[in-house]
Amino acid sequence: MRLDVENLACIRGERRIFSDLSFALGPGEALLVTGRNGAGKSTLLDLLAGWLTPAAGAVRVFEAGDRTLPESLHYVGHRDALKSALTARENLEFARDFLGSPALSPPDALEAVGLAHAAALPVAYLSAGQRRRIAIARLLVAHRPLWLLDEPTAALDTASQETLRKMMEQHREGGGLVIATTHSPLPLRDAKEIRIERPTPAERPA
Ligand SMILES: Nc1ncnc2c1ncn2[C@@H]1O[C@H](COP(=O)(O)OP(=O)(O)OP(=O)(O)O)[C@@H](O)[C@H]1O
């Protein structure tokens, strides 16, 4: 799959968040999105996911078969989007059934993030880092070529950050694409990088 983003602009409320944002990603490539708090990193992911409409510009997808862009991506956001009353395993079963294109089994995905022992626990009982690891395990239970990850290492300890880094590299080796926002260094091989700068007050619409 290929992604081509051209001269993208976004306005939220009365504010211009960014404009003229362009990049292209091909199979196996990764993009790190940096910028200060409130610069618009999550907003960019929301636009790519199709939840927001750009004020200008275009997002084009190629070589994705008959799938639309929303059907071609995984999104792991700030909120882990887990169902608190379901167990870790049930959450992954739900994700696999909902997303389609099953890949690793839920037990194997839990094993991959070091949470096999928590399979039968309701996620409400888990720590913030453990919940984040289950949200990340969702990436493994259904195959989707584009991973959109919003500060994926937040709440993760060093070992889990390394597990996630390896998962991202493996996904890329299989031809997958990764776009991750981050405030801390994420050592991905040959990753592209864009920094979103806040427009000055003069550039913002009144
Ligand atoms: N629903 C909304 N309506 C209007 N403005 C919004 C809305 N949601 C977010 N914003 C604004 O859009 C701007 C960009 O927010 P965004 O969450 O994309 O920033 P970010 O770069 O991801 O920040 P952080 O590093 O803190 O996560 C912020 O000024 C925010 O207040």
UniProtKB/TrEMBL annotation:
GO terms for molecular function: ATP binding; ATP hydrolysis activity; transmembrane transporter activity. SUPFAM superfamilies: P-loop containing nucleoside triphosphate hydrolases. Residues 3-206 form the ABC transporter domain. InterPro entries: AAA+_ATPase, ABC_transporter-like_ATP-bd, ABC_transporter-like_CS, ABC_transptr_haem_export_CcmA, P-loop_NTPase. Pfam families: ABC_tran. The keyword Electron transport does not apply. Keywords: ATP-binding, Cytochrome c-type biogenesis, Membrane, Nucleotide-binding, Translocase, Transport. GO terms for biological process: cytochrome complex assembly. Belongs to the ABC transporter superfamily. This is Cytochrome c biogenesis ATP-binding export protein CcmA. The lineage of its organism: Bacteria, Pseudomonadati, Pseudomonadota, Alphaproteobacteria, Hyphomicrobiales.
